[in-house]
Design brief:
heterodimer; A: 183 residues; alpha/beta; 5-stranded mixed beta sheet; 3-stranded mixed beta sheet; 5 helices; 27% strand; globular; B: 300 residues
Chain lengths: 183, 300
């Protein structure tokens, strides 16, 4: 997990519960020997700034484009995108899409709901906290779930991103998708 | 397949506590106007606390300290994309209603302001907006959580630039959590009585070995080393009040405290960011504060 800021501990719990060994990444050398990457929820401006300052942006881009299975949640989704609506902040550009930050409004509009996901029989308990949504995606990005017609769970090959927080629930289906990519 | 969702529920415990989880490992900075808010955001703050005067000035001015002017809070909300918190007086549920109507992201029921009620803290369950409250020990934290607080911070002694009280409160919290975890079921009620804590919450703490909500450090943090020490003591993140905008070069100090909070276990980085920060805020010795003027003794 990228551990510059955010809810790293919750992801670590999910990874450990799904049979993985969680590791915290703060510097480029921490990237050695990892099999998958999670970019947690947090503040995307803070995470982007620290990643730039500590030389993580290029090594992360390199590892992801070399096929490192990656999941970004909320701030992590923003960081993985190529553009942010009306914003100028460091981004990894691993998913060719434009993301709108705080798309549902402020904290009073944060919500939980049951989310239908492509190919899953049961709905997913989705927690949206000052969440982003995807505004526009390149055609090759697969939309696995939408809320009010806007994509909130997307995937392209080995890179996945969601606007909500699976790590705050007891449901490990999103994390298992990531772990299944580690061949 | 039918895309989309059924009922949306706002203001749930998970959503309220969840926002605080997202702030972990970050720094929340006190700001009094839009310019300061922008400096804080550019420096890597995860949120800002909008207020009329920083605690050091409240201490210097004396008089009754109240919720900030709504226009000031709105100006700050419009200036930044990160969450904005604002302070209501202890027990002043109407100030809290006003802050909720403004749409702030978190309400701090704060001892930095003059208490409005000597007996009752705000019933925080009645709100959609989540609350953070100060605590000096486990019992106080659990009383606030029982009233609906979704985030806890140490009280420390605000506006002093002196970290000693925040350290005292955090160490006491850690000691009492360990004590609860070590206690048998048969001791739980007596322990709850001694701490003044709701027994069900105390059982939860004993089982989990920690608070059910995030706990930040606050009250006297002025340097990168202060922030890193509080993180090593087990805090989840840092509030800096007067420490940044009462210092010589706020932007540089703000960035340094953010980096020290992320790399709190790496003394070389803390050393690097601590160089040439300019003048730190002038501190106050706790014993020099006259009895009755210690903010941490406000509320219960």
């Amino acid at each position: 997990m990228l551990a510059l800021q955010g809810d790293v501990r919750e992801h670590a719990r999910m990874v450990a519960a799904s049979g993985g060994v969680p590791r915290e990444i703060r510097t480029p050398t921490d990237l050695e020997g990892i099999d998958a990457l999670i970019i947690p929820g947090g503040e995307s401006t803070t995470i982007g700034r620290l990643a730039t300052l500590y030389g993580l942006v290029d090594p992360l881009r390199g590892r992801i484009s070399d096929g490192l299975p990656t999941l970004g949640t909320c701030a992590g989704m923003i960081f993985l995108s190529t553009a942010v609506t009306g914003g100028d902040q460091p981004l990894l550009g691993a998913l060719d899409m434009m993301v709108e930050r705080n798309a549902f409004g402020r904290q009073n509009e944060s919500f939980e709901c049951e989310l239908a996901v492509e190919g899953w029989e049961d709905a997913f308990p989705a927690v949206f906290i000052r969440a982003p949504v995807v505004d526009r995606t390149a055609p090759d990005i697969e939309v696995l779930a939408s809320h009010e017609g806007r994509p909130v769970l997307v995937r392209k090959d080995h890179v996945m991103a969601c606007a909500f927080h699976p790590e705050l629930t007891g449901d490990d289906r999103v994390h298992r998708m990531l772990i299944d990519l580690v061949a | 397949m039918e895309q989309g969702t059924k009922a949306e529920t706002t203001g749930t415990l998970r959503v309220k506590r969840g926002l605080a989880e997202m702030l972990k490992g970050g720094v929340i900075m006190d700001v009094v106007n839009a310019d300061q808010a922008s400096i804080a955001e550019e420096s890597g703050a995860v949120a800002v606390m909008a207020l009329e005067r920083v605690p050091a000035d409240i201490r210097a001015h004396g008089g009754v300290a109240r919720m900030a002017d709504p226009s000031k809070i709105q100006e700050i909300m419009e200036a930044v994309s990160i969450p904005v918190m604002a302070k209501a007086r202890i027990g002043h549920f109407v100030e809290a209603q006003v802050l909720q109507s403004l749409g702030v992201d978190y309400i701090d029921e704060s001892e930095v302001l003059t208490p409005a009620d000597n007996n009752h803290h705000i019933d925080k369950w009645a709100f959609t907006t989540p609350f953070v409250c100060g605590a000096r020990n486990l019992g106080e934290a659990l009383r606030r959580i029982a009233e609906g607080a979704a985030m806890i911070r140490t009280k420390g002694e605000p506006g002093t630039g002196n970290v000693v009280e925040a350290v005292t409160h955090m160490r006491r919290m850690n000691r009492e959590i360990a004590q609860a975890a070590a206690a048998g079921d048969d001791q739980m009620m007596a322990l709850a009585r001694d701490m003044g804590a709701p027994v069900e919450l105390l059982r939860e703490v004993a089982g989990a070995g920690g608070l059910p909500v995030v706990n930040f450090a606050a009250g006297g943090i002025a340097t990168p080393s202060d922030a890193a020490m509080m993180m090593q003591l087990g805090c989840d993140g840092i509030f800096v009040g007067s420490g940044i905008f009462k210092s010589g070069d706020p932007a540089v100090r703000a960035r340094a405290i953010v980096e020290a909070t992320t790399f709190y276990r790496d003394p070389e980085i803390v050393a690097k960011v601590s160089r040439n920060l300019g003048e730190a805020m002038v501190g106050i010795e706790i014993d020099d504060i006259p009895a009755g003027q210690r903010m941490q003794e406000r509320g219960w």
